[in-house]
Amino acid sequence: MRVLIACEYSGVVREAFRKLGHDAWSCDLLPADDASTFHIQGDAFDVINQGWDLMIAHPPCTHIAVSGGRHFEQKRKDGRQQEGIDLFMQFINAPIDKIAVENPISIMSTLYRKPDQYIQPYEFGDATSKKTCLWLKGLPKLVPTNIVVPEKITNSKGKTYDKWWYETCSLPLSIRGKVRSKTFQGIADAMANQWGQ
């Protein structure tokens, strides 16, 4: 199966498919973190018509995620939010039979439609919470593979947080978003095993 992982520079999902023998490629404007030769550095829409059987797209959520709602007014005014919406919809409408578009909770649930599925890393063996939406075309919903309890951490003031999220808060802003956008291994493996059939 020819698989395009759009907007991925980590290579996590690409490699999960490649390990199962698929002709999987990641594509992003950024270089691959793992320096793989199976990464296309550039615009995914430059290669979108190259005969892919499946595309998993992770469009940037910066301007559409509800977590950044306090900035929406300015982003609407300067056009950044519309750019995010347009990019998301380009992936949804791509000429590929099987598509999964992944994003956090965003305005697309209202502007486009509700996602087909919400998933959590702790349903696939990674002991953390990060509610993620999947909009699917020609694909079944992912079935949880290994449900575990999310790890928590309590700070000095007695407030409890998700451990992974809390730990990423201490990272420099320059890399925090990159770390948080990386697909968890359990989810990547489930995508490859369940959608690569």
Structure in words:
- By secondary structure, this protein is of the alpha/beta class.
- 29% of the residues lie in helices and 20% in strands.
- It has 7 helices and 9 strands, in the order E-H-E-E-E-H-H-E-H-E-E-E-E-H-H-H.
- The strands form 2 sheets. Strands 3-2-1-4-5-7-6 form a 7-stranded mixed β-sheet, with helices on both faces. The protein has a two-stranded antiparallel sheet with strand order 8-9.
- Helix 1 (12-18) links the parallel strand 1 and strand 2 (23-28).
- Helix 1 packs across helix 7.
What is shown here, in short?
With 197 residues, the chain is α/β, with parallel strands linked by helices.
Which key features would you list for this structure?
197 residues, alpha/beta, seven-stranded mixed β-sheet, two-stranded antiparallel ribbon, 9 strands, 29% helix
Total beta-strand segments: 9
Measured between the Cα atoms of the first and last residue, the distance is 9 Å
SSE sequence, one letter per element:
EHEEEHHEHEEEEHHH
Overall 3D form: globular
Mean pLDDT figure: 92
Number of helices: 7
Helix content: 25-40%
**Portion in beta strands:** 15-25%
Strand order of the largest sheet: 3-2-1-4-5-7-6
* Category by helix and strand content: alpha/beta
Q: Can you tell me the residue ranges where pLDDT is under 50 for at least 5 consecutive residues? A: none
The largest sheet, given as strand count, sense and whether it forms a barrel, is:
7 strands, mixed
Provide the gyration radius in Å: 17 Å
Q: What multimeric state do the chains show?
A: single chain
